[in-house]
Amino acid sequence: MKYSNNKNLSKKIAAAARVDERNKDISAADKKKNKTDTVTSPAKNSKEGERKARKKESILSLLKPLLTPYWIVFSVMIVLIFVLSILTRSESFCNSFTANVLPFFLNTYGRFSGLFPFSFGEVLLILMFPVLFAAVTLIILFFFMKHRDGFRKLFKYFFRSLMMIILSVILIMTMNCSIPYGCSELAIKKNAPTYSVGELEILRNYIVEKCNEYAEKLPRNENGKLIYDDSVKDITKEAKRVMELLSDTFPRLKGYYPDIKPINRSVLMSQAGTLGIYFPFSLEANYNKLMYKMNFPATFCHEYSHLKGYMQEDESNFIAYLACLRSDDEYFQYSGYLSVLYYVNNEYYSNVCEADPTRYDKQPEISDKVAQDSVFLTSEAKKKVEKEAVLDTETVREASDNFTESYMTYYGIEDGMASYGRVTDLLLQYYDGTLY
Prior knowledge:
Layout (H helix, E strand, L loop, with lengths): L1 H62 L5 H19 L3 H10 L1 H13 L5 H26 L3 H33 L15 H21 L14 H14 L15 E3 L2 H6 L4 E4 L4 E5 L7 H12 L5 H14 L3 H23 L4 H5 L6 H6 L5 H10 L4 H18 L12 H8 L6
Parallel strand pairs: 1-3
Antiparallel strand pairs: 2-3
Helix pairs in contact: 2-6, 3-6, 5-6, 7-12, 8-10, 8-11, 10-11, 10-12, 11-12, 11-17
């Protein structure tokens, strides 16, 4: 029995030894596998990281040229122009911007352009032609010299600068012209009643009689021309004063006014039949220095109203009329009446000429002196224009009229240049309850 027990023990020991060997093999295999995993895992992770890095680097390489200061500013300006163009459709936004932001521009950028003794806007317009010529020339040369490094750099920097200038002009025009055009109309224009021909007749006769009265009492020289000795500086000062006085009715008129500047190329301006012009991109009010001096007061006030954000021509005519009447200077008052005389007279004539041609002849006549005082150019100025004209006057006038009609239509003024005459409607409402 004792022998038998030892034999069983040997079998058990042998079985245990076999189990230990098997466990050793499994352990060795696991260690080898873990070692292999430890070696291969970093390699796999390294390849994955490299792939992501290359992908990130490729994206950055595409964006890198667009992350320069130039393209950042360029993109910001594009977005700003786009957003402001959409906001011009909001009347409340346009009102708020014109009342609060435009005065800031006028007090900063407007003061800067006002430092120049000449029309800064006129100079910018003149410079446009050589710049366009240079652009066309460089485009043509590009096909022959595009492989030269020096030329390619010149081409690149020129057109980059040109694009930035164009964007700047568009942005300034949007803020100083497009947005004010989107403002609400004058309160007097809302719910406007319809007036009879009889009421229009009363208004017409009142304006004619006031013009005749001033034409008689203001002093004249031996040739019958008005003696108007006030300097442009004095007229400008008075125009600023009366516009400021009118701010009690039109709040946007208060604040800073730069000096109004003459256009040196007034010959071309005279051919176009233009008395004054407002340059939104330089925030300047300009006038035709060749026009008859009695046009100065009303024209100065008209252009100043544009400078303050009143872009509608009938509204500017109306504001200029009221401003001139606020003056203590009789020349200003006379200029105000003259500025609306023919708008009102023509409106009345067109309303009665077909129905009763004799009715117009029965009304007070416009005196010869008034007719002489209400001219655009004197005979001397006309001779100067024809002598110095480079282009045909009819061609210039037609081009100017077409341009004016086009931009007015763009800004929603459906009747174009005829909108100037709508000042008659505003005058009918203004004198409602006073004259009739």
